[in-house]
Specification:
CATH class of one domain: Alpha Beta
Structural class: alpha/beta
Strand order of the largest sheet: 6-7-8-3-9-10
Shape: globular
CATH topology of one domain: Rossmann fold
Bound molecules: adenosine-5'-triphosphate, magnesium ion
């Protein structure tokens, strides 16, 4: 394997708060890489810096041979970096099919017909198991179903790496299983994943390698089983066990159903 994504010594402060304090790690091509760490350790900020939603104060991000440090989000997306958000961002008043079509705006006109035909959008909805709801408003979906719609929306752009911010957060066990299966299936087809998640069973089951963040930096990297027993990692989780992390702390901070609904 070779590095598809390379993060080197990234720093980012918000006023006096250092959210990223020299963060470095790599995502190997073809891997499912987990990024875990306690609340507030900088995981989402790292995603924002990689995808151009925030700009690093210093450090570098390279993707597939390109220096994407400081590049605007649209351009990073155009190179093949897809992402979902911790708080779901579907358009509640639009149907599922319309939500998928929204992604067209970020794609060159020459490719829109091919990537966003009704047939292709329906195939993607079928892939996430939501065909029968294609004409329903996204606002009528459960929180977990919205996360699957978001995955379909990202897939429409055919990214080579997908960053998922808490794909299993706040969703029921059946849909968590469905999410894990889809990720595994896409990975077999060659899509690389970097995923942030507090659900350790999900992370341990699906990731090839896990990077652990604490206070804005990666403090350990390794196979899931190794990381799980690393004293530094256990310490970062306040001396507790990764198996009994407080489910309240791991859940989204607002009630499912109203989170980030842009309708
Ligand atoms: N736009 C912002 N302005 C000010 N502070 C911010 C901003 N974004 C993040 N922070 C702060 O940076 C730190 C890291 O936040 P971040 O959201 O990256 O953590 P996280 O690891 O994703 O946490 P969680 O697991 O709870 O999602 C936190 O202290 C947070 O309050
Ligand atoms: Mg976060």
């Amino acid at each position: 394997m070779s590095a598809l994504l390379e993060v080197s010594d990234v720093r980012k402060s918000f006023g006096g708060l250092q959210a990223l304090s020299g963060c470095s790690f790599t995502v190997e091509r073809g891997s499912v890489t987990g990024l875990i760490g306690p609340n507030g350790s900088g995981k989402t900020t790292m995603f924002n810096v990689i995808t151009g939603y925030e700009h690093a104060d210093s450090g570098a991000v390279r993707f597939d041979g390109h220096d994407i440090t400081g590049m605007p989000a649209g351009k990073v997306g155009g190179l093949g970096v897809g992402r979902t958000f911790q708080l779901s961002r579907v358009f509640g008043r639009l149907t599922l099919l319309e939500n998928l079509r929204v992604g067209r705006r970020g794609v060159p006109r020459s490719r829109r017909g091919e990537l966003f035909s009704d047939q292709r959008c329906m195939e993607l909805l079928d892939f996430v198991g939501l065909t029968r709801l294609a004409q329903e408003p996204a606002g009528s979906l459960s929180y977990g179903q919205r996360k699957l719609v978001e995955l379909a929306m990202v897939l429409a752009q055919e990214p080579s790496v997908i960053l998922l911010d808490e794909p299993a957060g706040g969703i029921n066990p059946t849909l968590i299983g469905q999410m894990a299966e889809r990720i595994a299936q896409l990975n077999k087809q060659g899509v690389t994943f970097l995923l942030v998640e507090h659900n350790m069973e999900f992370v341990m089951g699906i990731c090839d390698v896990v990077a652990v963040m604490e206070r804005g930096a990666v403090i350990a990297v390794g196979e899931p089983g190794m990381v799980r027993n690393d004293p530094l990692v256990l310490d970062a989780y306040l001396g507790g066990s990764l198996d009994d992390e407080d489910p309240v702390a791991a859940a989204p901070s607002a009630a499912p159903g109203i989170i980030g609904d842009r309708s």
